Amino acid sequence: MPISDTSRVNTGDVFGAADRAGDYIEEDTAPALPRRHAEAQELLEPTITVEPDVADPGTLQPSMSSAALGGIERSSKSVLFGSPAMGLVAASRTSNPLKASTGFRGVLAGLGFPVGPGPAEVASRALEEVRFADETTVRQATWTRAVSILVNNPKGGTGKTPIALLLGGVLAAIRGGSVAILEVSDDPGALNFRAEGNPQLGLGELVRDIDHIRTAGHLAGYTAPQTSFASVIGSIGRRERLTDDSVIAVTTVIDEFYGIRVMDSGNVTTSSAFQGAVSVSDVLVIPVMNAGDSVLEAIQLLEELRSAGGSSAELANTAIAIRLTDGRPENDAVRQEVERLLLQAGVSALHDIPYDSHIAERGQLTLSNLNPATRDAFTAAAASVVRSLQSAVSAAPSQNRKA
To answer: Residue 210 domain-assigned?
Structure first.
């Protein structure tokens, strides 16, 4: 989604109150529909129209770029050669976009009256097309090697673990599995607690036995399978502190059996474990909230990665931010200042996640228990991450992230 430039806002004044949110654990705001991000907007097919006599002026009508795809215009009316995000499924889902299909209007249209969809149905169809485009992006993406996502913000309590679990869960649910969510913090974190299940073995045991893992079945014994079809590898108790060598050894084995790896990291960016995680990452996801310490530490992380140069700098240059809220009263000046600072820092996208009571309960997270708007927001973020992964892997000089 576009990030607005609010350079007229005074940073010091805005963040005077926002710093009080530094101890944030989970967001707690009123539900809201996810923002329409620019990438998904470009995929919308211009099939939804409302006749003037049945629609209010200004009703949202999706449009799509006329850029050619493989020599065929995306605006083509052909069912077979239209937008790849729509195709046969979209064509069968709405046989006549000019006719209403829900509510009293739908009843009249079913009786043969020329009644078009009302504003609510038009908006619902638009959201459905955005969702379908995002899911298609996630489902159809392919790579020639395993790919990895690093979730980090040095500021604690910004939602790293929920974002890692739910982002990985959405990827697994849409793609049908082959996603591993791995804890790479120096010391045991909350990943195993927030995930479903009660595994008998975890990360510490996997590090101990890593040289003996030969099959997918053997590796599965150290995971917590999720209803989203993701596999979680967290700590079930005390373990030795992770090092860069142990992180690289574990991720190398995981990449033999999973197509996507999501890493939930710690707060110490100078640690050996974090440096090892950076060396085997393709895309950086930064959780932020509407607070000064959260966004300023995120910016410091980007600066440190750029200073390191090479692949670390590339992670910073393509970073994606996901913003959570903590439920306290907020003002537009704080939100705008967060967006301005992230834009200035060079993040490639910013996605907002609405409040969800299931996340706020701070217990085990189950993807199917999220509100529809929350899941849509994570799906939009997942599509953005997938596009970044495709660019990162296609530009990589070799098949291995770690040289």
So the answer is: yes
